Amino acid sequence: MGRAKDIVIKVIPATIANEFVKKYHYSKKYVQNSKLHFGAFLDNKLHGVMSYGSPLDKKKVLPLVQPSLWNEMLELNRMAFDDYLPKNSESRCIAISIKLIKKNAPHIKWILSFSDATQCGDGSIYRASGFFLTGIRENGNSTMLPSGEVVHKMTLESSPTSPRAELGGKSYYEFTNGRYNFEKYAKEIGNGILRGFQLRYIYIIDKSCKLNVPIIPFNKIDEYGAGMYKGEKITRAERHENAAIAHKGERRATSPEGAFDSTAPLNVDKSIIP
């Protein structure tokens, strides 16, 4: 495990977590409803963030696991790490954060998370962390603006009349003649719909809970054609081969200079967990 065992996980303020996410997450965006943020520290510097909160549509996901009340689950909705942490750090950090949730918020029974293979990967970190794969679906709900920013259909449809400066001040409705027509919008701005896959992962904390959906074997990822990394198709065999090459020698660590400063240890405040 090497230096991964030296990583310290602490609860950190949203302001610090969100700035880190904006810098290192592929989307460059944090989730507004994240309420619990863990920081991963090594050599007294912050090198990773895991943000938990309520799903956008909790009513839709609650039936995935039963019994499960409204306040008995969380979504791991942002996870960002820099390159300073050693190999296997991500899965270790997730495991420790879940142990802290289990200890300090025993009412939380399960964790939900999604992997966006369109922009990032197909969830190898979740698989290494003991999550069950419970869903694979084609994802055609995002497009890239001329500025390079990737936007989700839900974001556009939540404020369809708001002008976007990067598109000459025109709004979603102006591009679609006052209709909810994401395909037309994506075509009009020139980049089209980003095609890929979204994979759903679930971690059961309370073993008395049962999944209401089938567990999908990991080898089905390639059968669905959903094996991706940063938007590019790649098989599990190719991923393993690339990983072996990348980690044949000692993983290169970036300089800690410029990393986020360490914060004092914080106690877990149960009031911030829904």
Overall CATH class:
Alpha Beta
The tally of domains stands at 1
Question: What is the N-to-C succession of helices and strands?
Answer: EHEEHEEHEHEEHHHEEHEEHE
Please outline the major beta sheet. Answer: 9 strands, mixed
CATH superfamily: Gcn5-related N-acetyltransferase (GNAT)
Overall pLDDT: 83
Strand content: 25-35%
The value of Rg in angstroms is 19 Å
Helix content: 25-40%
Short description:
By secondary structure, this protein is α+β, with helices and mostly antiparallel strands. The protein contains nine helices and 13 strands.
Can you walk through the features of this model?
The protein is α+β, with helices and mostly antiparallel strands. The protein has a single domain, classed as 3-Layer(aba) Sandwich (Aminopeptidase), CATH 3.40.630. It is 25% helix and 28% strand. The protein has helices spanning 14-24, 58-61, 89-104, 124-128, 153-158, 172-176, 182-188, 220-223, 236-246; strands spanning 8-11, 34-42, 45-53, 65-66, 73-81, 110-116, 132-144, 150-152, 193-204, 210-211, 228-229, 232-233, 260-261. The strands form three sheets. Strands 1, 2, 3, 5, 6, 7, 8, 9 and 13 form a nine-stranded mixed beta sheet that branches. Strands 4-10 form a two-stranded antiparallel sheet. A two-stranded antiparallel sheet has the order 11-12. Strand 11 (228-229) and strand 12 (232-233) form a beta hairpin. The relative contact order is 0.18.
